[in-house]
Write a structure and sequence with these properties.
The complex is a heterodimer. Chain A contains no helices and 11 strands. By secondary structure, chain A is mainly beta. In chain A, a hairpin with a 2-residue loop joins strand 5 and strand 6. Chain A starts with a strand and ends with a strand. Chain B is mainly beta. Chain B contains no helices and 9 strands. A 5-stranded mixed β-sheet of chain B has the order 1-9-8-3-4, with no helix packed on it. The chains are: A mainly beta, B mainly beta. The interface between A and B is medium-sized, with 28 and 25 residues.
Chain lengths: 112, 114
């Protein structure tokens, strides 16, 4: 399978703990995006990388969130001091063309 | 990015043609119209994109009137597996110099019944 993969698929954590998610994009895609989706809503943009450079970050993104893409390949999204409001599906997407993004299956985070 | 308005939900039956209309009254000259499909517990999937008139691929057709203030996604002969949420997005997404994240609205929940 050469699609976008995400790990883990599910994560349950206690409030205040740190969590890290990983995304492996399609190998030839230089663009990588992170989105967050809550139940009944469309995905919400979090941040964007072109190769290893983080070029955009949502103004809604708390300082507790940080993302990296070392070497322009896989990416990690870390949430520090998790809160119950962070519970959501975290989606990663990659692309060559901006409008045709390929999404991974997502990581479902539950903060208890 | 231009704001879009779609019906919250639609019902259909297997074998019927489904048309989902999206309103985007303040679409800009450089904006394109893109549709994504999302199944439960999966990420969205690109369906089709267009600028004006009609675009057709193996999955769907996209109809865009001359004023481009709306667009209609047409799914021919739907099956149960077409039950999903469909998102309409509008923006200058071909500008490769910008990040241009996708701005999703609430989407249209299509339920296909036997």
């Amino acid at each position: 399978d050469t699609g976008v993969s995400q790990d883990p698929r599910h994560k349950i954590t206690k409030r205040g703990q740190n969590v890290t998610f990983r995304c492996d994009p399609i190998s030839e895609h230089n663009r990588l995006y992170w989105y967050r989706q809550t139940l009944g809503q469309g995905p919400e943009f979090l941040t964007y990388f072109q190769n290893e450079a983080q070029l955009e970050k949502s103004r809604l993104l708390s300082d507790r969130f940080s993302a990296e893409r070392p070497k322009g390949s896989f990416s990690t999204l870390e949430i520090q001091r998790t809160e119950q409001g962070d519970s959501a599906m975290y989606l990663c997407a990659s692309s060559l063309k901006t409008y045709e993004q390929y999404f991974g299956p997502g990581t479902r985070l539950t903060v208890t | 990015l231009a704001k879009t308005t779609q019906p919250i939900s639609m019902d259909s039956y297997e074998g019927q043609e489904v048309n989902i209309t999206c309103s985007h009254n303040n679409i800009a000259t450089n904006d394109y119209i893109t549709w994504y499909q999302q199944f439960p517990s999966q990420g969205p999937r690109f369906i089709i994109q267009g600028y004006k008139t009609k675009v057709t691929n193996e999955v769907a057709s996209l109809f865009i009137p001359a004023d481009r203030k709306s667009s209609t996604l047409s799914l021919p002969r739907v099956s149960l597996s077409d039950t999903a949420v469909y998102y309409c997005l509008v923006g200058d997404l071909t500008n490769n110099n910008a990040g241009n994240m996708l701005t999703f609205g609430g989407g249209t929940r299509l339920m296909v019944k036997p």
